Amino acid sequence: MHETRGRVRSDDDAQVSPATYAAGKTVSSHTPAGQGLIFGVVKVPHVRTYSTTPRSVPSPQVTLLSPLVATPTFSKNEKEHCTSASVESEETQMDSAIDLSDASKALDLGNIRFQLIRLEDTITFHLIERVQFPLNGTIYKPGAIEIPGWDRSFLDWTLFQQEKLQSKIRRFESPDEYPYFPDALEKPILKPLDYPKILHKNDVNINDQIKKSYIDNFLPGACPNFGRDDRGEREENYGSTAVCDIACLQALSRRIHFGKFVAESKFSTETELFTKLIQDGDREGIANAITKPAVEKQVLARLRLKAETYGKDPSTGADGPAKINVDAVVRMYEDFVIPLTKEVEVDYLMQRLQAE
């Protein structure tokens, strides 16, 4: 039995007793066999709470994976993750984080910094959700799971289908979103938003590198060892694993490609310096000009604190078990998030003087 999250609910509909709510207690309840253990946190001011009552979700009409032995349809985890990882539109991101309808606000370094800090939270929480499950390396191997008309991995198929759907509701119309599968995109069913010109025209998209680094470098060190081998699609939560991976990958992509906004902002404030470096083809000089070692140390220290804090149940105290390998999270940022962000910045600036 593994841990699964309850549905996110608002304070006014959290199904807990008044006495428990008034006391501000952490509550837990066992659900029927095969549905796992659901934890709920109550009375957190201005913060959504987790319901302690599972809800039923209709089984999908078509499944690619063989059913799990314990249940003939998607597991409780898969149902909950499919619901909680619903498509987040670009309007929500714009309204709650950074205003992409105003180029001056979008390129303000203070606003960009705030957005990058918010993304640290997003990425950390997504990673904590992912490591509930073992590595499940089968889903990353082309052809390991038979899918009609598809010769790539199960993760790639799931990501392709997700981006196909998200493109229809304008996700990739937003200037801060980049698809892993550009050929999956379809015409949106919603009318286009009137975004101003923010970035110079460019073709920088390093999602293939992001996905490779995430699968090859981060996951092996972060996923816990459950003391068993991959048991196959009838016993492992492949669907839930892929949904969690997609949430992580898309958040990482957004974080890393935000380097374009940083680069454009720096170019606008130090145009003469960067123009000369670009004309000289001096990639190393550009990299040195955009690198702030002190800031990078602050980012890593802040990320470590967040991973340590978010990865602990407050009711168990500082000595309680950790939900995630904190060192693996910090190494991920140090070894590939920060370096790949710099690569995006340099690649973008190298195209900055090209005619549009």
From TrEMBL:
The keyword ATP-binding does not apply. One of its GO terms (cellular component) is cytoplasm. Pathway: Metabolic intermediate biosynthesis; prephenate biosynthesis; prephenate from chorismate: step 1/1. One of its GO terms (molecular function) is chorismate mutase activity. It comes from the Eukaryota. GO terms for biological process: chorismate metabolic process; L-phenylalanine biosynthetic process; tyrosine biosynthetic process. InterPro entries: Chorismate_II_sf, Chorismate_mutase_AroQ_euk, CM_AroQ_sf_eucaryotic, CM_II_prokaryot. Its EC number is 5.4.99.5. Pfam families: CM_2. It is found in: Cytoplasm. The keyword Amino-acid biosynthesis applies. Residues 239-345 form the Chorismate mutase domain. NCBIfam families: CM_pl-yst. Homodimer. This is Chorismate mutase. It comes from Coleophoma cylindrospora.
